[in-house]
Amino acid sequence: MHSNTDITGRLLICCPDRPGIVAGVSQFLYAQGANILDASQHSTDPWEGLFFMRMVFHLQNTAMSPEQLEAGFREKVAQPRQMEWRIDYTDRRKRMAIMVSKYDHCMMDLLWRWRSGELNVEIPLIISNHKDLQKLAAGFDIPFHYLPVDALNKAQQEQQAIALLQQQQTDFIVLARYMQILSPGFVKEFPGRIINIHHSFLPAFAGARPYLNAYTRGVKLIGATAHYVTDDLDEGPIIEQDVARVSHKHAVDDLVMLGRDIERQVLTRAVKAHVEDRVIIHGNKTIVF
Amino acid sequence: MHSNTDITGRLLICCPDRPGIVAGVSQFLYAQGANILDASQHSTDPWEGLFFMRMVFHLQNTAMSPEQLEAGFREKVAQPRQMEWRIDYTDRRKRMAIMVSKYDHCMMDLLWRWRSGELNVEIPLIISNHKDLQKLAAGFDIPFHYLPVDALNKAQQEQQAIALLQQQQTDFIVLARYMQILSPGFVKEFPGRIINIHHSFLPAFAGARPYLNAYTRGVKLIGATAHYVTDDLDEGPIIEQDVARVSHKHAVDDLVMLGRDIERQVLTRAVKAHVEDRVIIHGNKTIVF
Amino acid sequence: MHSNTDITGRLLICCPDRPGIVAGVSQFLYAQGANILDASQHSTDPWEGLFFMRMVFHLQNTAMSPEQLEAGFREKVAQPRQMEWRIDYTDRRKRMAIMVSKYDHCMMDLLWRWRSGELNVEIPLIISNHKDLQKLAAGFDIPFHYLPVDALNKAQQEQQAIALLQQQQTDFIVLARYMQILSPGFVKEFPGRIINIHHSFLPAFAGARPYLNAYTRGVKLIGATAHYVTDDLDEGPIIEQDVARVSHKHAVDDLVMLGRDIERQVLTRAVKAHVEDRVIIHGNKTIVF
Amino acid sequence: MHSNTDITGRLLICCPDRPGIVAGVSQFLYAQGANILDASQHSTDPWEGLFFMRMVFHLQNTAMSPEQLEAGFREKVAQPRQMEWRIDYTDRRKRMAIMVSKYDHCMMDLLWRWRSGELNVEIPLIISNHKDLQKLAAGFDIPFHYLPVDALNKAQQEQQAIALLQQQQTDFIVLARYMQILSPGFVKEFPGRIINIHHSFLPAFAGARPYLNAYTRGVKLIGATAHYVTDDLDEGPIIEQDVARVSHKHAVDDLVMLGRDIERQVLTRAVKAHVEDRVIIHGNKTIVF
Fold first, then answer.
1. Which of C283, C273, C279 is nearest to C236 (CA)?
2. Is the bond preceding residue D203 a cis peptide, omega within 30 degrees?
3. Residue from B250, B249, A258 nearest D289 by CA
4. Interface probe with A: pick from C228, C248, C249, C286, most Cβ of A within 10 Å
5. pLDDT (tens place) for every residue of chain A, 289 residues total
6. Of these residues, B6, B234, B254, B277, which one is catalytic?
7. Which of C42, C218, C242 sits opposite A238 (nearest CB)?
8. By CB neighbour count within 10 A (0-12 exposed, 13-18 middle, 19+ buried), where does A160 fall?
9. D223/B219 touch (CB, cutoff 8 Å), yes or no
């Protein structure tokens, strides 16, 4: 039996744009006794005609279960409007896995913000193809799985990683400078649920050695890009980007050092947006509410 | 007789926060046949308990007049919820007056963007206490009123300015580096409708000579602030601010020159937000949707 | 006969790095009675071993002519150290030509800063392949040459442009959104002396329609790049870059509008650096002191 | 006996501005066989007439000791020109003490960059008036001294802190959110050698509770300021500042969280500048080369 409790939910919807959507959704929520805490919406060009919305609502002391709420929403609101939709609940913390290689700065920043309460997730596991960061992970009491990858064992190790991630009911994966390209089979298991940080301002300097290439080209700003992973390397939907000013004084090593600060800030902002259900993937682009 | 036409309106509301506001508003608009193009909302702290919303809606080929629409909204939505509210219509361009002294950069930026179609206003008049910019105004075919101010004639000239502004049905006034302090009597005529640009990052360096004071203090960033004018000098609700990096190399004159670029950008952004009905004044602060 | 006068010069040098260069140069200037007002230096990686320096010096009430000063410098300082070098004098304003098509924002920004004294150049001519901006140029009393370009007359019109530029002793050319690709023959006439503004963050979105491509890719920042023109389109040495934040809310037209502000700021900063002899081209990169 | 070795030094000078200073200094260094790796200079307004310079030089395989080098410089260069000057050597790492209270973010950032090799110092001790961060310090193997402060024991605890700092030959102290005001007696022991991070854009919001005050005023940017500590609270020479954009959506707690990122970045940049001998204090301002 479900006893009365509070529900705070985040509703994301996508459907054909036409009058009455906001009215329909808000009327339904009001009828359940919910208060709308925040709402954002976006419509694409008239010729595409799509409507996107994020609504955060609060149901105080309700006898309804989330399942009942969703069943009602599906029947009365979503199906008549051909909506794609989902509701996430703030009292259920997302389970975030980290995959990492040797560089510690992105992982450290995530762990630090997690411990300080700034990042509202559970971190059930860290997977790495190197042992270097094992001790750091231990300092945060997070299980660390060492899965070294070479040309021969890659498929097998990916299967092992998938098994671990699924056992831990992982909601999404953060590649915190994980220096291996994931195979299409891996990506397919977590569609729209793998966030990568690339150390350049994409689409500039995709691929390997972006800081060296930035140095060689003589750009006056370097950047970092957080994006969802797809089968096309560095081509997935961009969530967040930022840059820092550089000059002729900066050698490649300086770019690497400066870049660390941008990488972790950009990755953290992207992860936060994902955790707070602010991101909708639409084709190869994102709407970040 | 009102013939069928399109209406695009921007609705701004403020009322006590409680469930059902979004539902009530959107249900009403839907019932009139309106499509909601954009919506933003904000709630203050629970103990203050206020709800703010901006909704942009479109009514296609409607037989209703704006007056009828507003009458219906007042009765069915606004009064039951003790709303403060207003609707502005995009087909009615706001009438913006500019008051200016000798510096041309802020006025020029506004005029330039106005001519390029970036700033969707009418500019019925420019008022200045100096003749310096008369020729520039003429280049844009805008009536220029020279109202020199000294210790003796200030009250009289302000009356003259008020008369001109009212004759021209001025919606709001931009002080584009107008170097006179407006009297409370003047401000009272245009409450929440006078935008000033102050050449510092307020509350730092309020009052006279902010660049000199910034230089003397040795700050590493200089700024500019656009705010609504109230009776307290440089204390009104802030709309927009920005900064630029400086160093020991910059003399006071360099700060003045760099500052010009920040001033005009900050002022332009604030004016655009005001023109698009994105700003709600709440106490001495602003909500900028 | 040369009468006594003041000389303020900007010396730029490039030579093999080894001890004694600063000592040699500053000793020479001191011996002539010069005071060093500003100095910056840069050394490349040890394996390249090049030294770059910019020195601003002031000679008060000297009987020496610039020619005599340069002859002495060549013999005593430059030749023994295999220097490439040049001296520019602040009392000789550079002659800047503007080439433009239909967009006015970059040209306007340059003209405005020129008139306000912020940009210390002479502007002997504007060349355009369209008539649209003729009236604007007239407002600043600058000769405007209309040289329309089509597939058949391009070579001939470029010859005409070169002739005009040379008649006017043009020091450098600013392509303020000039929408024609200059032929190698044209570029060869003004090596390292043509500055272009490209409306993207290079190397991202080189070529045509960068804002459309940025929109399609879904980037979260758009940018602009000022660079010297070489025979490789959009591949020349970068002088300055900057970006602005965008989101899913921005349609292509919004990117174009936002981009205008970045374009003119980036171009202006690049032009100022060139005018103040702060830029040394080294291979396909720049040193901006 | 001093055996041959390499010397890399950073020379900082301040003296009356007049011709021949650069020549004199660089001639002296050249005569010792030194190569100048980097040089920056600054002159104040003509009426103040002061000259400042930073020169980084390298002496390869020299038989001279630093003492001999300095004795020669003093006699031949510094005394004839009434220079204030000092030379620091890169092979001698500065000894940095950290004073901290309960907030960990600034301390953590410094320790992290120190461990990653980004911050080239020794950290002989951490002093705190709270025990909260003791375990963190232990994780980095840095001695942690707990010196609780109340109204009665403040003078005594400061004496104890001074004794500890002096025993450890501390070069400079970083107040990484140390929530006690140091007495003039303490400050006098380390003139120009205590760096504080204040969590506002000074001079705005000096004193207590800057984030609350920023929220109340409704500013659109919040900031942080790193400065040298003097007897006037929050009034010392500013080394570095930065800001982040905020809006009506941010409650005070959000400002605190966002502010943490700015605080640690600003503090780190200031500490790096100090460590690399880039900062000269001049009156109540800084020159940061």
1. C283
2. yes
3. B249
4. C248
5. 557 889 999 999 999 999 999 999 999 999 999 999 999 999 988 888 999 999 999 999 999 999 999 999 999 999 999 999 999 999 999 999 999 999 999 999 999 999 999 999 999 999 999 999 999 999 999 999 999 999 899 999 999 999 999 999 999 999 999 999 999 999 999 999 999 999 999 999 999 999 999 999 999 999 999 999 999 989 999 999 999 999 999 999 999 999 999 999 999 999 999 999 999 999 999 999 9
6. B234
7. C218
8. middle
9. no
Contact B261 C257 (CB under 8 A): no
How close is the nearest chain C Cα to the Cα of B113, in Å? 10
Tell me, yes or no, if the pTM score tops 0.90: yes
Contacts with C108 from chain B: Cβ below 8 Å: 112
Residue of chain A whose alpha carbon sits nearest to that of C236: A217
Q: Which helix (H) or strand (E) element contains residue D106?
A: helix D105-115
Residues of A in contact with B36 (CB under 8 A): 19, 21-22, 41
Strand intervals (E) in C44-114: 50-62, 84-89, 94-100
Distance CA(D50)–CA(D82), nearest Å, equals 11
Contacts of D257 in chain A (CB under 8 A): 118
CA dist., res. C70 & res. A236, Å (int): 57
Inter-residue contact D103 to D132 (CB < 8 Å): no
Contact A98, A273 (CB under 8 A): no
The dihedral region occupied by A48, where left means phi > 0, alpha psi between -120 and 50, and beta the remainder, is: alpha
Q: What share of chain D is helix, strand, coil (3-state, %, to 5)?
A: 35, 30, 35
B18 to A37: CB separation less than 8 angstroms, yes or no: no
Question: How many Å lie between the alpha carbon of C112 and the closest alpha carbon of chain B?
Answer: 9
- Nearest-Cα distance to chain A for D109, in Å, is 10
pLDDT single digits (tens) A123-180: 999 999 999 999 999 999 999 999 999 989 999 999 999 999 999 999 999 999 999 9
Write the ipTM.
Answer: 0.95
In angstroms, the CA D23 to CA D30 distance is 10
Cα–Cα distance for residue pair A238/A287, rounded to 1 Å: 9
The answer to whether A56 and A36 are in contact (CB under 8 A) is yes
Beta bridge partners of B172: B96
Residue A10 and residue A37: Cα distance in Å, rounded? 10
The pLDDT confidence band at residue C1, using thresholds 50, 70 and 90, is: low
Query: Which of D45, D248, D287 lies nearest to residue B285, judging by beta carbons?
Result: D248
Let me know if C48 is exposed, middle or buried by CB neighbors in 10 A (0-12, 13-18, 19+).
Answer: exposed
- Spatial separation of the C-alpha atoms in residues A40 and A91, rounded to whole Å: 21
CA distances in angstroms from D176 to A218, D195, D215, D263, D276, listed in the order given: 36, 8, 23, 9, 19
**CA end-to-end span of chain B, whole Å?**
36
Q: Check C238 against A219: CB less than 8 A apart.
A: yes
Q: List the structure tokens of B232.
A: 């307290």
CA distance B53 to B14: 7
Give the number of other Cβ atoms within 10 Å of residue A167's Cβ. Answer: 10
What pairs with residue D172 in β-bridges?
A: D96
Q: Are B163 and B142 in contact (CB under 8 A)?
A: no
Determine the Cα–Cα distance for residues D104 and D140; give it in Å rounded to an integer: 13
Q: Which of A144, A115, A120 lies closest to A132 in space, CA to CA?
A: A144
Alpha carbon distance C33, C17 (integer Å): 26
Angle between helices D21-31 and C21-31 (to 10 degrees): 140
Give the residue from C191, C180, C263, C262 showing the smallest Cα distance to C228: C191
Find the CB nearest A218 among C219, C238, C242.
Answer: C238
| Active-site position among A17, A91, A132, A234 | A234
